[in-house]
């Protein structure tokens, strides 16, 4: 009888262990299933949010096309430049903002299509660097990074040899136009501090561009000529906020430029490139998009999206 009782006890303990293991396994499987369901739901929501952003991008392009056919200038008081609050969509919200890319200095302007250095843009850029208290040496490094030759333009320049000696990771100069301003961080003379200072005032566009005087920040206006003082430049900004300049000629007729020679080829009031920032939220899914548009008179296309 005692032996039978012991066997019954072992059997009961074994049964309890089996039930416990089965329970733990069931709970684990259920938890994993719930996690997979949530993960799938998030992915679906993210994909749906991204599709909404593509729709918003298309809408933004249509707004810009309508604008180019209606007006002869681009300024901050136009409908496309106004920031809208988040718009409700099924299950969430979507928002987007267009901004003018002729408000910044195009780094690719430093080298002409022929491969020669553009002196007028070099001088302009170096005045901007001086205003920002940044060494002008990086101008030569940018030029060497873009141009197709392997010759260092000046002692302050840098070609392949300067980058192949880097550790732990070496690389070569691009020998082509910049795709994005963040490439500046690859230059030997551009650290995080310099990039942070410079980034708000520069961009990288695939063709030569001019500065839109209706959007240019104070620093870019001051870079037009060393004789232009901050007070006069600020008055130009205040004036355009009341009534945007209709032409470059009207802009250059302002009292601030009296006695100063400004090359009108640097400037415009009509822009060709625009940026679009979008964000959509559906449930726990969040998607963002950053696009760059190139606008012609009767067509517009996305040249970069990330």
In short:
The chain is 42% helix and 15% strand. With 306 residues, the protein is of the alpha/beta class.
Structural write-up:
With 306 residues, this protein is α/β, with parallel strands linked by helices. Helix content is 42%, strand content 15%. The chain has eight helices and nine strands. It has helices at 2-70, 119-131, 137-146, 160-164, 192-198, 218-222, 230-242, 248-252; strands at residues 87-89, 92-100, 105-106, 202-203, 211-212, 267-268, 273-282, 285-295, 300-305. The strands form three sheets. A five-stranded antiparallel sheet has the order 1-2-7-8-9, covered by helices on one side. A two-stranded parallel ribbon has the order 3-4. Strand 8 and strand 9 (300-305) form a beta hairpin. The protein is elongated. The termini are far apart. The model has no long low-confidence stretch (mean pLDDT 91).
Main sheet attributes: strand count, strand direction, barrel closure: 5 strands, antiparallel
* Rg over CA atoms: 29 Å
Major beta sheet, strand line-up: 1-2-7-8-9
Distance between the termini: 79 Å
Mean pLDDT rating: 91
Low-confidence stretches: none
**Which band does the percent of strand residues land in?**
15-25%
Shape: elongated
Indicate the percent of residues in helices.
40-55%
